[in-house]
Amino acid sequence: MTGAARHTDTELSDGLDRLWTPHRMTYISGQDQPAEGYEKPSGCPFCLAPGKEGDDSLVVARGERVFVVLNLYPYNPGHLLVCPYRHVADYTELDAEETAELADHTQTAMRVIRKVSSAHGFNIGMNQGGVAGAGIAAHLHQHVVPRWGGDANFMPVIGRTKVLPQLLTDTRKLLTTAWP
User: How many CB atoms lie under 10 A from the CB of residue 14?
Assistant: First the structure.
C-alpha cells in the first residue's frame, strides 16, 4: 500500500485493524504552514506553485489569469484546484476576465478528468473564509473533485481515511497529457 501502513495495535480492545496515513498529519496539524501564514503571497502555496517546475509544482495547466493545480491533500484522485494567479481571497474580488477564465478552466478540468478516469460526477465549489472551511482562505481556489459510484464507502465514513490508488505525480502526468 503506497503512502499507508496497515497495523493491528494489540493495546486497542476493539480488535479492529488500523490503516494509518501519517502523511496527512502534516496538513491536519498545520506543520507545513509557513511561519508568516498564508496571508502574504510569500507564504502562499497557490502563489508559489506556478513558479515551480515539473512534478514539484503539481500544476496541470496554465492560463493567462488562472492555473490548475492538483490538491496536495486530495479527497479523490484527480482532485484539482482552479486558482487565479492574483492573491485574492474573495470571489467578488475577481475581475470579469478572471471570473470567465476560472469558469472555462473548471469546465476543461471536468472534461479532462472524465476523459482520463471516467468520473461519474463532480463536486465543484469554493469555501469562502476559514469559518466556511477554507484551509487557505487568503487565496481563492475552486475545487473540482471527481466522484465515482461507491467512492464514499466505509473507509471515509467509518475509517475517516481515504484510500487513493494513484500517486499525485502519476495523476498529474495523465491530466497534463490530456489537457488541450
Answer: 6
